[in-house]
Amino acid sequence: MTHPIIKDLNTRYTAKKYDATKRISADDIQVIKEALRLSASSINSQPWKFIVLESDDAKQRFHDTFANKHQFNQPHAKEASHTILLAYDPKFTKEKYAKRVDAEVTSGHLPEDRYNMMLDGAYGFAEANTDENGFNGNWTKAQVYIALGNLLHTLARLGIDSTPMEGVDPELIGSIFEKELAGHVCEVALAIGYHQDGEDYNHGLPKARMHMDDVIEVL
Ligand SMILES: Cc1cc2nc3c(=O)[nH]c(=O)nc-3n(C[C@H](O)[C@H](O)[C@H](O)COP(=O)(O)O)c2cc1C
To answer: What keywords sit in the KW lines (predicted)?
Structure first.
């Protein structure tokens, strides 16, 4: 298949070794941030926070979060151009949702007279996924993974390499980035940058996916 989307998706891959001398341009970082912001989410909940680690100090702090586990991902903390922490809100309340509905109205997307209908009606989706302690992190985390997928595709189109990392330590990230996370939980991060030529064993390998008929059925 020769479509440019398929070409980009075949070219993107999980980088295993970054060239520490190469940095993503400020223009591309702007595109990446805006693509993240534009990610879709159930009921437009946007129950997330994305933290872009760019400075040496931020990278050192992220490096420190690998003290206890998943050290195989640790080199990316300093060698990749940037890392993005993708964090979900474990207790996404109706009060927080009201801010999103505010944006629905101020943006012109929702007529003002439908404000309460959206706030009360749509939030039912969140309520249906909320337990007796107010925890709805399974649902909000699912939204964060939509942003991750959107980000992976955006990076593929920009020709920027990346490494999704569930191999992170949510507890240490939670304490070392406590202030910035503001109650959000980070269980997945994305290193981004440019691979080290000749030293990344994963670069240039064929895609290893299930056969189309095994995963997709058209009725
Ligand atoms: C949610 C998620 C978590 C992942 N965690 C890691 C990780 O911690 N370290 C790593 O090297 N690769 C990680 N990967 C990369 C996958 O192994 C990789 O995407 C998969 O093998 C497909 O290969 P490709 O990305 O090169 O196409 C992760 C991928 C995803 C989507």
So the answer is: NADP, Oxidoreductase
CB 73 within 8 A of CB 164: no
Q: pLDDT tens digits, residue range 40-67?
A: 999 999 999 999 999 999 999 999 999 9
Single-letter residue type at 131: D
**Domain-embedded: residue 82:** yes
Q: Which residue has the tokens 């979060």?
A: 65
Nearest to 66 by CA among 206, 182, 168, 204: 168
Q: Per the structure block, which two tokens stand in for 79?
A: 């060698």
What is the CATH classification number for the domain harbouring 164? 3.40.109.10
Q: Is 97 part of a structural domain of the chain?
A: no
pTM recorded for the entire structure: 0.98
Mutate to test the pocket of ligand 1, among 14, 163, 188 (most ligand atoms within 8 A of CB): 14
124 located within any domain = no
